[in-house]
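Section 5.1 Outputs to date
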Amino acid sequence: MPSQGDILLVPVPFTDLSVHKQRPIVVISNDVYNRQTADIVVVAMTSNPAQVDYGFVITSSDLQHGQLNHPGTIRVDKLYTLSQSIVTRTFGRVSPQTLDRIRSMLRELVAAKA
């Protein structure tokens, strides 16, 4: 069962649905939710280092365990609910500080603003 903060690989289809490519995601749903349902709530990761609102770059030093081949950008504005059954691999876990940063950006993303 995936845990909150895990970095997982999942197949993501191309737009024409002809081919899938493995993509990393970070689990943000809590462990109780993950145990009680067949789904997980995740944010996307990308290797594109472009500066974006509601995104930030992480390196291997931002992981509690595991290793990144190169820096990745966590995209807090790219939220998905996925079936746990499509997870192909777990390759790390973000640190508690990185998970707190994700939570903070999520709060900012959904905050009422004029």
